[in-house]
Specification:
2 copies of one chain form a homodimer.
Chain A lengths: L1 E7 L1 H4 L6 H12 L3 E8 L3 H14 L2 E5 L10 H9 L3 E3 L1 H17 L14 E3 L3 E3 L8 E6 L2 E6 L3 H17 L5 E10 L3 H7 L1 H5 L5 E7 L2 E10 L2 H19 L3 E3 L6 H11 L4 E5 L5 H7 L8 E7 L2 H8 L3 H6 L5 H15 L3 E7 L14 E8 L2 E8 L4 H21 L6
Helix pairs in contact in A: 2-6, 3-4, 10-15
Chain lengths: ~425, ~425
């Protein structure tokens, strides 16, 4: 089934928001085995929307549109698609009632906010449409079927779109698909993208079904192995030998082969398995590493205490870094990272403590310690290991890389992978 | 100048990466006053790329392509565009030398990583192209001009693309533009999207030049006022009266009218102005609030200490929450938020301390305190103010909203905006 995504919104063309919906829907289409060849973004402009919708309906079987279903005058998606398909708009009593309930509930929780009349526009739907209830907002989704083509209209806000897609659209599309794509991710840390590309070149050259594709993330690389199959069981069988081969090639640097498992989840799982309590002492990452650990539901089982010791005073007071260390070698040094990790263990009573201290820039770099210099310490079983990094990029990028490499370092320390470092 | 963005990469169509480049380039095009009507994503497929490039060159003057310039076999952008424009590929000696230097430098810093031969493919460029040096990678950018059309090819990794665009492409495009769009953002916190839309409906109805457009962010709304003008001076003059009107309507809830100023920067600036030291005590946000403050370069002037008190033990030990409080009303309570904020001030010696404690889910909710219940305390000048929130969405969304509302709360406390709360 050839499919196409159309995101509607001048705000996307002006660069005011990042189009995360397309990434989400693309992944869902891939899982459903739908052939997604194009994503298009078009503004809130009637003529260009019409042109885009018409072209998409010509070259694809199913089009999925997001955005432009809201209450404002700019919201034209429903009107345009209905017009292209020749469908008339009528009021949907069920949706009208749902909007009413939603508004009443909203008013209760937000006594200072006004309910505005423009919301009722959202109860108008093309005659014959399948209406998709919106559990998290007022604009319903819509499925329109005509002349063998399907148009699926979804609200723009991700927290409205995602549950609607998963609960209502996914099952609808699943029924229509004969083949599926079964795919599995192999997630690798500690090795760079081009090295991985070189090491799997023979596999890529000989690929037919399954295929293999590398995706570079900050500080990690994901390899997606995808098989076209008639069902999940056959897909699994096709994918298995290639996954086994990758395990031989990348060994301990593979932290997950599970689709949804993040590096922080892998770390939290390891800590759980070994019944270890973690604490963190962060300078340049400023709490981002702790926040990443707390991304994992149930992190409380292994993580209780974090220190953001952004100032030297905090490093001394909270985790007992020595005055002399700060004076002689400074806060961005192997010695300071070591003392932070050790002090963090002592101050929290945790079994493992990871520390991060570095220069994220844009200021603060010197010739000896340029921006991007980061030291990390990991105190575990009475021993402190230290790693030194030299990251490139801007402040955000350096801090982001620091967080990922800290997680990889932590993983290596707990599993004993760091013996050569 | 009609412009179009084409992102190349099957990884985008499979949903493996979020297309942040398009957001960035769209914003840049808007600033340059270029008319951007479409963004398209196409996979690493020669035929469909050719089709997309041809269509884009028909309907637009300038096309900007990103991705597909790398060393792998999948990277086809340069080859396809050169073919469509009828340009031959030749080796560029300058680029070859740069790749050589880059690789040598890389090898020095990464002794364990191998340099692979596929990199030399990147030194081949269409004959007559303007070559854009890549300061952060091996693939150069390219500007191709033919038959009155311009194709600009940029590398996919954002840390390579952005500096290349700003230093080399922006000045190139600036010279070509007669008119510009001058735009200004008015950034508002504490008011919901639909209420703002209703309150500016009259302004939107009567708009010609400048125009006004609302963008909902998590916990805030940005209004973009855009004027078409012959230069920046005229643009500023056109935009000014509308900005003044918005200031009258939304008053103290406007935290910035500066394009780049984030809510965390507004807060850090306020703290700097008033020479206040901030500390933070976080439970459900788990360090994300501190990390957000540390996003701001120079945050060290106002922020030194953060506590991530994820466990009850940490709440007691680090910021002296009373055992009785945890036992009777629990960690997610007005009382606990109050004690965390007060204790945080005492433990850090800061002038202001903000605390956040809540239930981010998916587990841990009860009938009295459902998932999304969050309490925040702000201790300032000996007084602790508390706010209670009920957020909706998943774990990530609840934590993200908590961070934004915490920043807004902090801002209100320091400026005295919270008197009614």
């Amino acid at each position: 089934m050839i499919t196409e995504l159309i995101s509607v919104g001048t705000e996307i063309l002006l660069g005011n928001i990042v189009n995360t919906n397309s990434a989400y829907l693309s992944e869902m289409c891939a899982r459903l085995g739908m052939d997604l060849y194009y994503q298009t973004v078009v503004g809130d402009n009637e003529e260009r929307m019409k042109h885009t919708v018409k072209m998409a309906l010509e070259r694809s079987d199913t089009i999925i549109l997001t955005g432009g279903l809201g209450p404002t005058q700019d919201d034209l998606t429903k009107e345009v698609v209905a017009q292209v398909l020749g469908m008339e708009l009528v009021e949907d009593a069920h949706t009208h009632r749902r909007i009413e309930e939603y508004m009443e509930n909203y008013a209760k929780n937000n006594p200072n906010r006004k309910i505005t009349d423009n919301n009722w526009k959202q109860a108008m739907v093309p005659k014959g449409a399948i209406v998709l209830d919106n559990a998290n907002g007022t604009a319903p989704g819509l499925i329109l079927e005509k002349n063998g083509k399907t148009a699926i209209l979804l609200p723009g806000p991700p927290n409205e779109l995602k549950p609607m897609f998963e609960e209502q659209v996914y099952p609808y599309l699943r029924k229509k698909q004969p083949d599926i794509f079964y795919s599995q991710l192999v997630k690798i840390c500690n090795i760079g993208e081009s090295q991985i590309a070189a090491e799997i070149q023979d596999l890529i050259e000989n690929q037919t079904n399954p295929t293999i594709a590398p995706y570079a993330k900050t500080g990690e690389v994901h390899l997606r192995i995808t098989a076209r199959a008639k069902d999940e069981k056959e897909g699994k069988k096709l994918v298995k030998p290639l996954v086994r081969e990758l395990k031989i090639r990348f060994g301990k640097n593979i932290y997950a082969t599970d689709e949804r498992k993040t590096l922080e989840e892998a770390v939290v799982d390891l800590l759980k398995d070994q019944k270890l309590k973690l604490s963190l002492v962060e300078s340049c990452t400023g709490g981002a590493l702790a926040a990443r650990i707390v991304n994992v539901p149930g992190a409380s089982e292994v993580f209780g205490t974090g220190f953001v010791t952004y100032s030297n005073k905090a490093k001394r007071k909270l985790v007992m870094v020595k005055k002399m260390t700060l004076k002689t070698v400074g806060a961005v040094s192997e010695k300071c990272a070591r003392e932070m990790a050790k002090g963090g263990c002592a101050a929290s009573g945790a079994d493992v403590c990871l520390s991060v201290t570095g220069i994220a820039g844009p200021d603060g770099g010197t010739k000896e310690k340029p921006v991007g210099t980061v030291f990390m310490g990991c105190c575990y079983q009475g021993r402190v290991r230290v790693r030194e990094f030299h990251f490139s990029g801007n402040r955000a990028k350096i801090r982001e890389q620091s967080v990922v490499y800290a997680l990889a370092f932590l993983r290596d320390c707990i599993t004993g992978n760091d013996e050569e470092s």
